[in-house]
Design a protein that fits this description.
Beta-lactamase; 7-stranded antiparallel sheet; single chain; alpha+beta; Immunoglobulin-like; 6 domains; 12 helices; about 15% helix
Length: about 850
């Protein structure tokens, strides 16, 4: 019962397949060919045909007459003759599957001995015609009996009496004998107790729903039987009992073309027999090329399986193409008939118009997940205008040609690549190639630390365990050390040759951050109890550390490029600094000074000495963020007047008599005042300049010592070493001294109404003892023109290098002009401008080293 259910299920699936739509172009070609060939063969009264083709189902056609005025139809039943033998063979194989019998059983195990029959013949030798038993149909006695006694029913034992002697030793040759299948039917009944016709009905026809197929004589006809014509005579009304009772399992089955196509397809598609039994069935031996119940042929260069059949009034032909898996059936109601050639020609339509059977698919049979550009090719298929490729799950690719490039995805699994040709008449047979898809290995890179490293450092990258490695750096080891930035990728190969490519591992190389960009934010007039925002340009992959000025607090943003600061009530000023840092270290600091009150003003510029009873100007540069300035002084009686001048601030101060004191200034804004800038000023003259004169005079000599006039001085006070005497000029800036015997300092103080200025000194050595008199005669001085107007020329000679003084005095001795004049050894000259002097008599003094020469000078101004 279990096997029966299986057959029903399988055939139900088959029924869905044959319900498909047959290609109209192909159907038209088949019908045209059938009509043409039947009409061109007068001995073929009529013929029905069918074609089963995978994916299209079954085509049926008919041409010619059943009898006069009544065309053959495709649903008529025809005697199959020897095409009945396949049913018998399949039944024996089914019994062998159920271990009811064995194909290796001998006749004597199941049947009595018969004349001219070797009892050691096996069931297999019966079915493949290698028994050597004579064929009863080829005896004249049998044929005469059939023709003369149409309504007689023959028993098998009677038929077996007609056979002649054994043709050869069993198993040594091939001889086609219908007697073999008569004996096979007897074995079935002996083994099961039932006729083979009943077993065929119950085990094959009913499960396969072959309702129009029946065993004649033993079963009543079903449907319409075509008239049968033998040698041009209609035998329809002649009884078939004699013929078909004698034929029995060798040729008594009737069927339609549609059901014969179904029968062949179900059987050869593996829906009836086990794979082992099907292999027995199709084990074609030579000579004879016969299997078990059908044979092997070549049609139009193609290997085919099938069988022919002929009997009184019927001629049949079955063709099966195991590559196309196509079935062609031709059933004719005539004998003789051209049905063999017509059936072959219908098969030729398939060969000529459908894509041919494909060759072998070439390409890798073992691939890896993730493998790309794997090419598979099949030789060009005859008649194909396009190709359909079917790929295993997870494989990707498309082609309408005979070659395809496939990518096996990471989820691809083993399976079968299938390809078939296609044209307007349908799809061709398939070619298959089994593909083993090996799993893709993992490809993972692991770093032994952060992938952001400092310049000069190294990072180790390690791939997961595999058979071999190839890094994009060219390295082939499992681990590599890297010191440069970039993306690192490894391709790993496992033990079965499958590769995988890792995701990139990005390595960054960083350095100690540099100096931040200038800090942006208010730096001046930032008052206590206020807040502000300060920032620098943002740099990636760094953090920031801010140090606020004293008296302030960072309230937000520490660690970022922008912060907020609260300035406390005691804030005055200080530095705000920021540095950038990362894992490599700290960068340099960027600083700014933030102040609430302005900075201390810069230096006060103005007159320091000789301010006695004078008005002097003082100024500073403008202080950033200052709104105004406050000037003060501790000098009694001083009066300050302020005024603005471009770019700075200035005041004038009117002084009375004082010795010294401070003036100071502060810069002011809304936050308060800066610390003061102070300047110490004096009413007295400044210290004198260089004292000129001989520093190594001889005792008893007369020497001149002088200084440049000191601004604001009204007189001078000189002192000389003990023993020396000032001969003249003691209250002027030029004195004549008689040198005594002691060394010491020549000093001078400038004086005015406010007091004495600081002392200026010139040290002289202990005088030499040889007395050297002044040699005024050695000094020559020429003054011209004299009288003069606006200027006068001097020419003089000196014996060494030095610096002298040119003085202009009036006749009272008042010093009017004084000029320092450098001279060289030899001739010298100078020009003295007399602008501003009125006409009159003046004296010009030339003072150099220890000499002095005076010339009277007359100035005459132009009217």
């Amino acid at each position: 019962m279990k096997k029966l259910i299986q057959l029903v299920i399988v055939f139900s699936t088959f029924g869905n397949a044959i319900g498909q739509s047959f290609n109209p172009n192909l159907a038209s070609k088949l019908q045209q060919k059938l009509d043409a060939l039947v009409s061109s063969n007068p001995n073929t009264k009529g013929m029905a045909a069918s074609v089963y083709y995978p994916g299209q189902g079954i085509w049926t056609g008919a041409s010619g007459l059943s009898y006069s005025g009544h065309p053959i139809t495709a649903d008529m039943e025809f005697g199959l003759a020897s095409n009945s033998k396949l049913f018998t063979s399949v039944m024996l194989l089914k019994l062998a599957e159920q271990q009811v019998l064995s194909l290796e059983d001998s006749l004597h195990e199941w049947l009595p001995n018969y004349n001219n029959i070797n009892p050691n013949v096996t069931i297999r030798q019966l079915l493949n015609h290698r028994s050597g038993i004579d064929d009863m149909f080829y005896t004249q006695a049998h044929l005469d009996s059939i023709l003369k006694k149409h309504d007689r029913i023959w028993k098998p034992e009677e038929v077996l009496k007609w056979i002649g002697p054994m043709r050869f030793t069993p198993g040594t040759n091939f001889y086609y004998s219908n007697t073999n299948y008569i004996l096979a039917g007897l074995i079935v009944k002996s083994a099961t107790g039932q006729s083979i016709a009943k077993l065929i009905r119950d085990s094959l026809l009913t499960p396969l729903q072959l309702d129009s197929t029946f065993s004649d004589v033993e079963e009543a006809p079903i449907g319409t039987i075509s008239h049968r014509w033998y040698n041009g005579i209609d035998f329809h009304d002649t009884s078939r009992l004699s013929l078909n009772s004698a034929s029995g399992p060798a040729g008594a089955i009737f069927s339609t073309v549609s059901e014969m196509a179904q029968w062949y397809h179900a059987l050869l598609d593996g829906n009836i027999l086990s794979p082992n039994s099907l292999a027995e069935l199709t084990n074609f031996l030579t000579p004879g090329n016969y299997g078990l119940g059908f044979a092997k042929y070549t049609f139009f260069g193609n290997l085919c399986w099938g069988h022919g059949g002929q009997t009184l009034g019927y001629k049949t032909r079955m063709i099966y193409d195991p590559c196309m898996k196509a079935v062609v059936c031709g059933l004719s109601n005539s004998f003789p008939s051209a049905s063999d050639g017509i059936t072959a020609s219908l098969y030729q339509v398939l060969v000529d118009y459908l894509p041919a059977c494909p060759g072998l698919i070439t390409g890798l049979t073992t691939v890896c997940q993730g493998q790309s550009n794997v090419v598979y090719t099949i030789p060009a298929i005859k008649n194909a205008t396009s190709y359909i490729w079917t790929l295993p799950d997870g494989a990707q690719g498309f082609s309408s040609t005979n070659s395809i490039s496939i990518h096996f995805g990471s989820n691809a699994i083993s399976g079968t690549i299938i390809v078939r040709g296609v044209n307007d008449y349908g799809e061709g047979a398939i070619a298959k190639l089994a593909i083993t898809v090996n799993p893709m290995p993992n490809a993972i890179i692991t770093a032994n630390g952060s992938t952001t490293i400092c310049q000069g450092s190294k990072l180790e990258l390690t791939a997961n365990q595999a058979s071999s490695y190839l890094w994009n750096t060219g390295a082939i080891t499992q681990s590599i050390e890297v010191a440069t930035a970039g993306n690192y990728i490894v391709t790993v190969t496992n033990s079965i040759g499958c590769k995988a490519v890792s995701n990139p591992t990005t390595v960054k190389v960083i350095t100690i951050p540099g100096l931040p960009d200038p800090i942006v934010g208010q730096t001046f007039a930032v008052c206590a109890n206020s807040s502000g925002t300060y920032s620098v340009s943002q740099v990636n992959d760094v953090q920031y550390y801010w140090t606020p000025p004293p008296g302030s607090t960072i309230t937000q943003g520490q660690g970022t490029h922008s912060i907020s600061i609260n300035f406390n009530g005691n804030f005055i000023s200080g530095s705000l600094s920021v540095l950038m840092y990362n894992a490599c270290g700290l960068g340099p600091k960027r600083k700014i000074t933030i102040s609430s009150v302005p900075a201390v003003p810069g230096s006060i510029v103005g007159k320091v000495y000789a301010n006695c009873n004078a008005t002097s100007s003082y100024s500073i540069r403008t202080v950033e963020s200052a709104l105004n300035y406050t000037w003060t002084t501790d000098i009694p009686g001083a009066e300050i007047t302020t005024y603005q001048s471009p770019g700075d601030t200035a005041v004038s101060i009117k002084f009375q008599q004082f010795y010294s004191g401070y003036i100071q200034v502060t810069a002011n804004n809304n936050c308060g005042s800066s610390a003061p800038r102070k300047l110490l000023v004096y009413g007295v003259p400044s210290v004198a300049g260089t004292i000129y004169g001989n520093t190594a005079p001889c005792a008893g000599s007369t020497q001149n010592y002088y200084i440049a006039a000191v601004t604001g001085a009204t007189s001078y006070q000189w002192t000389v070493p003990t023993g020396s005497v000032i001969l003249s000029g003691s209250n002027t800036n030029n004195i004549k001294v008689l040198i005594g015997a002691n060394g010491g300092d020549v000093s001078v103080i400038a004086k005015n109404a406010c007091g004495n200025g600081p002392v200026k000194k010139l040290s002289i050595t202990v005088p030499c003892q040889s007395i050297k008199q002044p040699d005024d005669l050695g000094l020559t001085l020429s003054v011209y023109p004299n009288p003069c107007n606006e200027s006068v020329h001097l020419s003089f000679n000196e014996t060494k290098f030095g610096t002298g003084l040119i003085q202009i005095t009036d006749f009272k001795g008042t010093l009017l002009k004084e000029i320092q004049q450098a001279y060289v050894s030899g001739s010298n000259s100078a020009i003295v401008q007399l602008n501003g002097l009125s006409s009159g008599i003046y004296f010009l003094n030339w003072i150099s080293n220890d000499k002095i020469k005076t010339v009277k000078l007359i100035k005459m101004n132009s009217n």
